[in-house]
Every structure is written in structure tokens, then in C-alpha cells.
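Example 3.2
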Amino acid sequence: MLKRVSLALLLVLLALVAAVAVNTWRTPSRQLAVAPASALPIDAEAAAKRLSGAIQFRTVSSLEDPAANNAEFDKLHAYLAQQFPKVHATLKKEVVGQKALLYTWAGSDPTAKPIALMAHQDMVPIASGTEKAWSVDPFAGDIKDGFVWGRGTLDNKSNLMAQLEAIEMLIGSGFQPTQTVYLVMGDDEEVSGLRGALPIAELLKSRGVRLDWVLDEGLLVLDGVLPGLSKPAALIGLAEKGYGTFFLSLDTSPGHSSMPPAHSAIGSMSAALARLEATPMPGGIKGVAGQMFGALAPEMSGLNRVMLSNLWLTGPLVESQLTKSPSSNAMLRTTTALTIVRAGNKDNVLPGRIEAAVNFRILPGDTIDSVEAHLKRALGNDAIQVKRYPGNSEPSPVSPSDGHGYRSIEQAVRQVFPDAVVAPGLMTAATDSRHFSIVSDSIYRFSPFRVKSEDLPRFHGTNERVAISNYAEMISFYHQLLRNTAQPQ
């Protein structure tokens, strides 16, 4: 009897191993087969100098004072007109709101649905106290060691300038797009986009414009970042997570520290926040994350390929490993971040009020309402008052990965970055593109930056820079993308 059971178990195990092996071997590559693009005659050094000039304008946006740096935006606008004369002679330029820019490049076919390329003019400030950590002046636009340095080189003036460089070249060659092309350049992306991108989207809607697809900043060409993948991974964002901040407050009676109650305001709030942090929202390898790993699995090697090709069996184990990394965990669930705690102003006084803020980045499928319900359950203290931040936004809709827009972007990536694997992805931060769901069902988020793990902290961080060689690739990408749109669909 025991032998028969052992034999049966062995047969089941062998069958399972065989199924895993066959399934791994039979999982086909999903990469689009295209020939690399011909090299463009780009004067990379001259383009880098133009980017350097743009970095020198301190177009830092402010939530509290919208007009704080208007003069810098005016200088940037004049600089763009000077550096890209063909663009400004050919495209229609409009200033929307305060300093947002909308360019219209008329297509040859007025019946074809237009497209939009997005970038933003504004930058985040240098974090107070970190100025001396920079190896260069962050607003000098220094060019050295093969890089352009400074605030905005990664986020987001490189995208903006590369688009203009590509279009200047295309106009010079006599090219005209089939579809009308809009260039959307917001002036307040870093503080919400409510004054720039949103009014532009509303303006286009009022004119009856329905966009075929939209491309904004977003995910990157990750080189050596994903374990088990020897090639760079170019991730195209199909969606972005929602933004949900909740302000918490708890009121109790203030008092002298010599006679503390059993549960102080600080203790009660701290215990509630600890419960919240220990109770993450449920997640899983599904939705956009499932699409991403499905596209990457056939390109991986060794155990990683086996594990990701057989999620029907390995899913729980893979998920447990992914949750250990903040970056991969953010792909799987709505994340919870405790960001502000305020209480007390004297060491021997029990404060009567404590305030806190919690920021959630909301996974498509969850909602602000469902997040608030989870928050209240996890806090476990009905005395804590919860108030929503007025700027909260729901997750974006998920754009199709089989539509013309995605295929055009994928084709351009494969042509300009032939060594890269392309896969759908989820944008975990917010971009101006979230405002464009009112005029398009196909919105994508991709920035043609080659980055290694050590480069990621440079975004909004210290020593921000872009390689001149990569900047030339960026120009080539937008040039090829626009040429691709003129091909028969």
C-alpha cells in the first residue's frame, strides 16, 4: 500500500515537473520583430548645448504661489522660439492658462484622429539642505564627462527638448504627419497639473478633439535593474495609480506630563498608525502586473523564467518575493505611506491634538472609497477623524496593449533600442496624462531614458543628469515614432 502511494506521488511529481518544463519551453516571445532604425545625422553635442540652455531657466512650479517663477517660464518660451525656428514657423502655438504651451502640427489627413506628445516645463526645487551634495550647480546646465547635468535633465526637460529637436529635423526634411500632432507642455505637473494640462485637455474637448492616443513621460529603459533579465527592459505604462491622501486627527484633553492618562493622544494615534502599516491592502500578480510579467517571462533565463512562466503554480511564492522590494511591491497593490505626524510643542505638556497624513497610491481596480473604508477599518479607532485631500484622484483607466498607439510606441522602441525587451507596465507616480482621459482612451507613459539602478535616485534627487548619447537616442525615438505614425495603420 505504502509503495503504491509513494509511486503515485512520484508519478504526480514527475508529471508536474514535465508540465512546468513544457510550459516554460512553449511560452513564446512576445517581442515585435523589426529592423533597427537607420542612424540619424544628429549633432548630439549641439543638441546637448540646447538642452543645457533650457536647464538654466529656473522653472520651478509652486502650489501656493502660481506666479512665483513666471519670468523664468517667459524666458524659456523665448528660448524655445529662438532655438527651434522651424517648429515655431510651422506649428500653431497657444499659451493656455498661465504658462502652459499647446502646439498644433496639422496633419495631411484631416479625417485622421490626432495624437498628442506630452512633456512638462516645470521642475521640482532642490531639497533644502542638499545643495552642497551636488557636484555641479544644479541650474547651470553643465556639460561634462559625457553628461548634461542639472535639475530637469531627467524630469522632464529632456523629453520636451527631444520632441522639439525631432520635429525640427522632420520639418527640415519636408516631413508632414498624416495625423495632426499636438504637443502638450504643462507648467505645473509637479504640483498637480490642474493649471496647465487639465485646461489644455478641457480646451481640446471643447473643440471636439478626440485623440487616437497620447504619450507622456513615464516608465523607462531599465538596464540591469530586473533580476534574471540580461537585456534592458523598456516598460510602457498602460495606466497610472491613483493618488489618495487622507488627513487624520485625534482630539483629547491636554494635560501635564506628570499625570499622563493610560492612553495619550500620541499613543493612541501611534498605535492606530502601526495597525494601518501592518495591514496592507490586498494585491497580487494580476492586471497590468500580470501583463508585464507575461511579456518578460520568455526573455528571462534560469529559475526566473521557470517561475514567471508558471504562475499558475508558483504565483504565491513569486508574489511573496516581489513584496519584499518596495518597487515591485508597488506594482502589486495599493501602497500605504505614513507621511506626516504632528503633535505637541513642549516636552512636559500632553498635547490635546495629534494630526497625521497617510498617502495611498491606488492600484487600478481599487477606488478612493474602497481605500478610505480600508483605512478606517485598519485604524481601529472611531475617535480618529478622517478627511480627504481635495486633490485626490482615482486610478487611470488601463489603456489597451494591442491598439495602434501601443504598437507604434513599441515599434519605435524596438527600432531605436534594439537590445531592449518591451513590456507593458504600471506607472506608480502621477503624470499630467491622467487629465487626458476625457479626450482619449489610449494613454501611454514612457520616457526613453536608459537608466541603471544607481540612476533612479537622481529623479527628484541629487546630481540629476542625462548622458549625451542617451539624449541622442531620445531624439531618435521621437523622430522614429512620428515617422511610424505616417505609415498605413
